Amino acid sequence: MEVVHTIGRRKKAVARVYLTEGTGAIVINGKDVKDYFTLATLQYKLEQAQVLAGVEGQYDIKANVDGGGITGQAEAIRLGISRALVQINPDHRATLKPQGLLTRDPRMVERKKPGQKKARKKFQFSKR
Model pTM? Predict the structure, then answer.
């Protein structure tokens, strides 16, 4: 099997994911997954697509991720992994799509408006 390359995005994070046949090793930006994502919930998000497709431990994953925070990066990698699994075997689409793993989450940070403290929070109102 050749290397399967896909891209995943979430908020400002962009992940380039490379899947090859192997033993299930996950390397992110040259580091082991346990060193890069120390939270168990983020590690679970990365394994979620493989567990649902029933292929955990069959593919080595190498990911380069840039931008955003750690949660956005983890979800960008998850989208890339899901797309790669569907590219390898289109039958996985039936299990991943209902879980929402093939949908790019469109939610972004709302911009700050002038004359306000934040996007929606206003400065304190003084009547007198």
Answer: 0.89
